[in-house]
Hints:
Keywords: DNA-binding. It holds the Pfam family TetR_N. By secondary structure, this protein is an all-alpha fold. The protein has nine helices and no strands. The chain has two domains: 1-67, Homeodomain-like (Arc Repressor Mutant, subunit A, Orthogonal Bundle), CATH 1.10.10; 69-216. It has helices spanning 3-38, 49-56, 60-66, 70-91, 102-114, 116-122, 128-153, 158-180, 188-206.
Amino acid sequence: MRPNERRRYVVKNRYCAGNANRNAARSVALLNDALAVLLNELPFPQITVTMLTRRADLARNTFYAHFSSTDNLLEEFIGAVLERTRATMLEAADDMNPRHPGSFLRRLIEAVDRDRTLLLTHVFVDDQQNRACLSSAVRGGLIPICVDILDARNPGHRGELALYAEFLVDLTMDVVGHYLHGALPQTTQEMVTQLTQIYMAAFALYLMPHGWVRKR
Length: 216
């Protein structure tokens, strides 16, 4: 193969690979969008591959090119929320001080407002059964993230931190859900103030008796 022909061959293959990657990403996005719509209409166990592909206007073999089952799609669906939340928490890690949680809570509410659409379509859906399932999965993913961040500040208290994180993640998920659905009339600052009091009480209950002192 001559040099010019080789270059054309390489460029053509790269172009084809780029198109394939874009098409794959588009298909995955369409399937995620279809699942978001169906989760507001039906309990998840009733959602089938056929329903998803019809809603996404894709062939069944396209679904199976990316996912092994509807459960596999749901894992990626929830993973999008966990990855976004993990990134937000890492950005706010310096403010995760159980003794003084106000700064972290302000950043948390700002993140909720910024990611409102993602949370409403991927966690706090209208269907109550699906909302419970999605919230439970997200709770399970967030607790170890919280523990890891706090344990990095002060190693040796993972047991107490796990109880503390479990309590606060459960509480915060409920509050965020009510906030997004308009059930809480408080302003952002009022919410931060009231949540700060609860977070500090949780610190006194779970961590203070064990001598937890934040270290940098």
